[in-house]
Design brief:
By secondary structure, the chain is α/β, with parallel strands linked by helices. It has helices at 27-44, 61-65, 69-83, 99-109, 115-119, 150-162, 164-173; strands at residues 2-3, 11-17, 49-55, 87-93, 121-123. Helix 1 packs parallel to helix 3.
Length: 203
């Protein structure tokens, strides 16, 4: 997961690239890293919205359907209702299989994410078509762009995560919880409301 330094009309372009041994794929670890990454962004970054590019080159359908529904539902709730970021578009490239297979994946994710967010997903059969939607200055060198290569950008993110100041900040974020004792409670009980309200008369 890495960002492009330059903003595109106030929007931050982000890449998520799956690599390594996907046999060790852990969705819980992925979401934890993602939300820590979000905490760091909210501290240092300034943007109006996001453009995401997901590279599924090393992802198989078995990885998608191995996702635990309970964890996926919680992550979707935290993302959509907690962060509430403005995602302008999500570009998915290098999807293995046919378009119908990609549609099955979208139907699965549609159970957890809002219809609006799902409608902003664009799946490319040809990765080069990405250049028609995102200019080269906002793409890494190994994706046909002018920005530094993805390996360099990933190293930058990893270096940030290892900084002592960042580690201390993330450890402190773990202490942030809501005090439910201060949450306003309902001052009325619906069981005490009698009658119907089908007719309304105005003078």
């Amino acid at each position: 997961m890495f960002p492009i330094a330059k903003l595109k009309d106030g929007l931050r372009v982000h890449f998520m690239k799956f690599a390594g041994d996907l046999g060790m794929f852990d969705i819980t670890y992925l979401f934890r890293m993602g939300f820590m990454y979000a905490d760091i962004r909210m501290r240092y970054d300034y943007w109006l919205g996001d453009i995401w590019v997901l590279d599924f080159k090393h992802v198989a359908l078995s990885h998608i359907f191995s996702l635990k529904p309970v964890i996926l539902k919680k992550a979707a709730l935290l993302f959509q209702n907690g962060l509430n970021w403005r995602i302008q578009s999500i570009h998915v490239i290098n999807v293995k299989g046919s378009a119908s297979l990609a549609q099955r994946v979208m139907d699965f994710l549609n159970k957890f994410f809002s219809a609006v967010l799902i409608s902003r997903v664009i799946i490319y059969e040809n990765p080069e078509d990405l250049l028609k939607h995102i200019p080269t200055e906002f793409l890494p060198e190994d994706y046909g762009g002018c920005a530094p290569s993805s390996s360099v950008l990933i190293d930058n993110v990893e270096t940030e995560f290892k900084r002592q100041e960042t580690i201390a900040f993330l450890m402190n974020c773990r202490k942030f919880v809501s005090d439910e004792r201060k949450r306003p409670k309902d001052e009325y009980c619906e069981d005490n409301l009698a009658g119907t309200f089908r007719k309304l008369e105005l003078d």
